[in-house]
Amino acid sequence: MNAWNRLLFGGDNRIAERNVLWNTFGSAVYALTSMLIGTAVTRVLGADLGGIFFFAFSTFGQQMFIAAYFGMRPIQVTDTACRHSFGDYQSFRFLTCAGALAAAAVYAFGFTESGIARTVLLLMVVYKVLDGYADCCDSEFQRQGRLYLTGKSNAFRTMLSVGVFFCVMFATRDLVMSCVGAVIGQAAGILLFCLIPLGAFPSLDRTVHAGSRAALFHESKWLFLSAFLDLYIFAASKYAVNRYMTNADNSYYTTIFIPTSVINLMANFVIRPVLTILSGDRDRGDRGHFLRTVYRIAVLILGLTLLGMAAAALLGIPVLSLLVGPEAGKELQPFRGALVMVILGGGFYALLNLLYYVLVILDAQRIIFYIYCGCTLFAGMVSGLLVQRAGIPGAAFAYLVTMAVLTAFFALAAAAELRRWPEKN
Hints:
This protein is mainly α.
């Protein structure tokens, strides 16, 4: 274990640089793998099983990850005064993970067909809930000033679990066994890249204090509810396709979402580094620089979105066909317009993420929650109606309309908050 930890920790030199490089690498591996793994299933096992996996992994499984995560990372990583011990955070995370598993079991046995679909759903929920627990360890690495360990954990756990998944899938052509392999790989990754390294921190406090879980619940409940509703709104059209259409349709629709995820990934690489700058502008009262920074990022998002739409119109379907294989690729041909609509919706989603952070910096979390509540009902009704009437193009249009409406509400709220902030003299 000592040799393993020395390998993972490295020395104490250039920690700041390693923090940035490894965190970027880990985030990129995690995001890209999450986007592409379903296309591999579609290519190897067919569109029906690909659709089952897409929904279990990237839609419902991700929703349960949010339940297990419970908005805790921002609280844990900023708790540098150690108001709560690692034992407190871990104990609370055990509860949220158990709650996510229980909710998933209710959904699986109440709303899904028995057989492969239900089994894959439950296995992928276990995989995602394990990921939610691992985030507690990764957050502690960051709180201890070792963000590069978080990046290594993200990267190596993902590569290990997905590598096992692919090995089993190519060897057996069995989706259920592949998912079992992924869960085992995830558990092994947590042991190797989370639990063993945590043992190398001699000052790590594993004490669980009385009342800590209730306190953490009250600190994180608004962040959790907002994040949970945000993900549902983002995925409402996917839920509708899964409910009213076939597994194969689910695979095709989720495939055309992949370019949207790329836009959001690139936008977040731009947004997150400037959050401290925007926070500093707020503290200094420098409204002018705050607005200029927000406008520049918004223009960049607009440029990325227009570029993505043009690329999708010309090359989108052929490129996606290469990912999912020729058979599924033929089925994607009628959905060029739907792909462009989804990418435009993704541009709105990237913009509303920027506005979300603006409202958080301006201490308007409760307004965020109210907007999410209203748009959750809107997203569910519009998505169900349009999917039943127009299929996949209807789902794409529902996503676009939902994102545009949500962005408009966020923009109005941000403008109202900014009007209350006087210009610096």
